[in-house]
């Protein structure tokens, strides 16, 4: 429980939603709209990653040997833009309210998605991919901060578990449907051309993102529920306090490292889709008696791409389904156990799962489907436990900014992992990105073994959140 939460004795009179006790001024409709936003935010992001191989193959005409490096470069640019925007979005959400900033971030994503299928060169493709990922990434940074405002402290682990459930449903429903949109459009006469199929698929995602932004703008609670906001402090004071706190609290250092691991775990949607499409193209070339990197006839190429996309959406859907099943379990563990210990267990489990995925020889085998379920179960634990941990440590006065720093660290981890994974994918093996992510989880787990005992021994008074906030004039 944070210092801003009222005593537990007052909790029986609180409004409830499902198994959660809500904060002052929060109603059931507010948190219902929030979970719908969590469902759509991740669903749109996964859908964008799932469709990227189609865009590179059918609209830009890139070969399988080029897609790993170019796709990773585009995603790295997007994550860099998202990382830069996440801290600013967190700070703005502290000042202007989560509702307005969350909705604006999704509108930015809708703009990028709507224009992406019009790309006719790599420069435009890179720029619009950056806009799309910046919007969804910044929206995710604000999304993570909201349970700290809406939910009573001891129930935040369960709240984040339900966020993971909503995220998993979004990945399954929106992500899987997105991967099948080009095939659906191809069956309709007005969308027979590849570019028309792209406009149909990306346009549907853009409309979904814009509709979600409108729903959030109308349905989330106003700024009044953000407890302990520093109304009289300037933005620079809040920025200075938040950054000093993030640097001085060892537990927050661990949380930010865990953010890098959690976002690195997001490689499954992007690189698994690339792996499936590339393996499908190579299998089609082998069946036609051609060398693996030889250009295929257009009809064989399109059939191979559609087969790879269909299988990748199935596997990514299994990951989301596993997250749906595991989210509530990890949330309860985070509330009932020491949250740092829960995070360490999740990191080790995720490392084992990604090692198992890296050892799969074929993405189309039954073994890959089973391992995809395991990956979903374990990576959900990293996401849920890291979010619950950082919300526990972040004071309400700068919660949005701290969560923005958390998102920034996650973005940096994603950028590094996407770049390294792209190089491994292009120059070593299709499973190379999963080896890298396994190593990232092991590295953060090892850091946790050093930082967790320091956290349990308590923080020195000079680095306590109250001292830092008082020093910057942020206490009401």
TrEMBL record:
Report the principal subcellular site: membrane
Give the record's keywords alphabetically: Membrane, Transmembrane, Transmembrane helix
For this UniProt entry, the molecular function terms from Gene Ontology, in alphabetical order, are: transmembrane transporter activity
PROSITE patterns on file = MFS
Give the UniProt subcellular location, in the record's own words.
Membrane
Provide the Major facilitator superfamily (MFS) profile domain boundaries.
Answer: 251-476
One GO cellular component term: membrane
One family name in Pfam for this protein = MFS_1
- The membrane-spanning stretches of this chain are 31-52, 72-93, 100-118, 124-147, 159-179, 199-221, 340-359, 365-389, 401-422, 434-454
What membrane topology term does the record carry? Answer: Multi-pass membrane protein
Q: Which PANTHER family is this protein grouped with?
A: MRH DOMAIN-CONTAINING PROTEIN-RELATED, TRANSPORTER, PUTATIVE (AFU_ORTHOLOGUE AFUA_8G04850)-RELATED
- This protein is called what? Major facilitator superfamily (MFS) profile domain-containing protein
> Which organism was this protein described from?
Alexandrium monilatum
């Amino acid at each position: 429980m944070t210092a801003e939460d009222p005593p537990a004795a007052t909790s029986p009179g609180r409004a409830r939603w499902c198994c959660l006790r809500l904060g002052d001024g929060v109603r059931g409709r507010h948190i219902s709209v929030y979970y719908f936003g969590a469902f759509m935010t991740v669903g749109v992001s996964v859908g964008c990653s799932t469709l990227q191989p189609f865009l590179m193959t059918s609209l830009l005409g890139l070969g399988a040997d080029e897609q790993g490096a170019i796709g990773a470069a585009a995603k790295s640019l997007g994550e860099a833009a998202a990382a830069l925007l996440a801290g600013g979005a967190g700070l703005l959400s502290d000042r202007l309210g989560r509702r307005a900033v969350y909705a604006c971030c999704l509108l930015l994503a809708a703009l990028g998605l709507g224009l992406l299928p019009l790309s006719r060169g790599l420069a435009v493709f890179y720029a619009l991919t950056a806009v799309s990922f910046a919007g969804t990434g910044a929206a995710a940074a604000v999304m993570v901060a909201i349970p700290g405002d809406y939910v009573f402290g001891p129930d935040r682990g369960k709240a984040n578990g339900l966020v993971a459930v909503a995220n998993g449903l979004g990945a399954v429903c929106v992500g899987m449907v997105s991967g099948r949109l080009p095939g659906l459009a191809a069956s309709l006469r007005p969308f027979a051309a590849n570019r028309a199929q792209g406009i149909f698929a990306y346009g549907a995602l853009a409309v979904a993102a814009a509709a979600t932004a409108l729903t959030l703008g109308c349905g989330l609670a106003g700024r009044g529920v953000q407890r302990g906001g520093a109304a009289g402090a300037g933005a620079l004071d809040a920025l200075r306090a938040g950054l000093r706190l993030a640097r001085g609290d060892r537990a927050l250092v661990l949380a930010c490292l865990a953010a890098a691991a959690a976002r690195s775990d997001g490689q499954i949607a992007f690189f698994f889709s690339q792996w499936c499409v590339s393996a499908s193209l190579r299998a089609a070339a082998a069946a036609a008696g051609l060398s693996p990197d030889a250009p295929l006839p257009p009809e064989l190429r399109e059939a191979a791409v559609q087969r790879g996309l269909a299988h990748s959406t199935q596997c990514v859907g299994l990951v989301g389904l596993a997250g749906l099943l595991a989210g509530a379990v990890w949330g309860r563990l985070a509330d009932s156990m020491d949250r740092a210990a829960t995070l360490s267990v999740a990191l080790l489990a995720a490392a084992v799962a990604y090692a198992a995925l890296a050892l799969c020889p074929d993405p189309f085998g039954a073994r890959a489907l089973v391992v995809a379920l395991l990956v979903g179960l374990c990576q959900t634990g990293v996401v849920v436990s890291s979010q619950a941990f950082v919300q526990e440590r972040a004071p309400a006065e700068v919660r949005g900014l701290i969560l923005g720093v958390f998102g920034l660290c996650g973005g940096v981890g994603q950028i590094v992992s996407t770049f390294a994974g792209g190089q491994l994918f292009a120059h070593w093996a299709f499973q190379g990105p999963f080896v890298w992510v396994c190593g990232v989880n092991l590295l953060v787990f090892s850091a946790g073994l050093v930082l967790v005992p320091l956290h349990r021994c308590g923080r020195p008074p000079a680095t306590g959140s109250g001292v830092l906030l008082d020093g910057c004039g942020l206490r009401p």
